[in-house]
Amino acid sequence: MFGFIKKSLSKTVAAIKTVAPKKKITFTKDELEDILLEADVEYALVEIILNEIYQDKITREILRSKLLATLAYTSYKEPKFTPPFVELIVGVNGAGKTTTIAKLAYKYKQEGKKVLLGAGDTFRAAAIEQLTLWANRLDIPVVSSKQGHDSSAVAYDAIDSAKAKGFDNVIIDTAGRLHTQTNLANELKKVKRICDKAHKGAPHRTVLIIDGTQGNSAISQAKAFNEMIGIDGIIITKLDGTAKGGSIFSIAYALELPILYVGTGEQPENLTPFDKYEFVDGLLDAIFVEEE
Ligand SMILES: Nc1nc2c(ncn2[C@@H]2O[C@H](COP(=O)(O)OP(=O)(O)OP(=O)(O)O)[C@@H](O)[C@H]2O)c(=O)[nH]1
């Protein structure tokens, strides 16, 4: 799997090249400020990183340790659970929720697990259709209802059915938008409650999907979801399509949440575990030449 993250950084690297066309052994703070901002690391975090550096000539190793420190929260520990493992997928419309659910389902299926999907975004008929399309394509069962029906009932039925049939994983889609933010918060909370009712301890993981092309503007959105229902981990989509790869630092730092995977394309297999070392080194390779 090695190399997918680095490859997906090509647009971010191209953005960096506009301010640092020539790789060097060391950079000044001013130069690095331009580079990090161009990669869409949030201004406040750029200041934090640079303020902690006391050298005038900054080497790859110095910057590397600072960048890795901002990703200190990115490791995830799976909780203890009784199967099926239930995941709730949340995020705004268009972030890539449906595609990411398909990618996760594909991954679990490849691992030999029995997966069931729950089409819990009952607010939009298109969301149900899209998920069903993916489910058919991947030959994975999906529990759904009609548009406008109760999404928590879908979650309950999906979990109940998975339990009865000995499934390993249940992935539940949720609405990204309702008439008001309060409605959305109430609905997500209810779905979460009902999951626990259907299967004690569920959902075992609530995953927020963030559109990587949004860069730092996704932070406030992510904070809102975290306050609404509590997020256990993040998946950042469309890393391959963005020049804003540096926003991953700000998102991870601001939310103190693990980044589980990144989306590196539109196909089911384009979901890559987030490896902070590959990510940081992928960026640093574009900036520094190796010391002789
Ligand atoms: N290049 C690329 N495109 C992606 C990735 N993930 C999702 N997409 C595309 O982004 C678009 C939106 O994805 P969806 O999965 O439909 O988004 P959603 O959040 O379910 O949005 P709704 O269907 O509006 O609820 C689709 O065209 C996907 O193919 C990714 O990692 N890379």
Q: If you had to describe this structure to a student in words, what would you say it looks like?
A:
The chain is an alpha/beta fold and about 290 residues long. It has two domains: about 5-75 and about 280-285, Four Helix Bundle (Hemerythrin (Met), subunit A) (Up-down Bundle), CATH 1.20.120; about 85-275, 3-Layer(aba) Sandwich (Rossmann fold), CATH 3.40.50.300. The protein has twelve helices and ten strands. It has helices at about 5-10, 10-20, 30-40, 45-50, 60-70, 95-110, 125-140, 150-165, 180-200, 220-230, 245-255, 275-285; strands at about 25, 60, 85-90, 115-120, 140-145, 170-175, 205-210, 235, 260-265, 270-275. An eight-stranded mixed beta sheet has the order 5-4-6-3-7-8-9-10, sandwiched between helices. A two-stranded antiparallel sheet has the order 1-2. Helix 11 (about 245-255) links the parallel strand 8 (about 235) and strand 9. It starts with a helix and ends in a 5-residue tail after the last helix. About 50% of the residues are buried. The mean pLDDT is about 95. Bound molecules: guanosine-5'-triphosphate. Guanosine-5'-triphosphate binds near residues 91, 93, 95, 241 and 263.
Strand content: 5-15%
Helix share bin: 40-55%
Sum up the overall morphology in one term: elongated
Count of alpha/pi helices: 12
CATH topology of the largest domain: Rossmann fold
Which stretches of 5+ consecutive residues score pLDDT under 50?
Answer: none
Based on CA atoms alone, the radius of gyration comes out at 20 Å
CATH C-level class of the largest domain is Alpha Beta
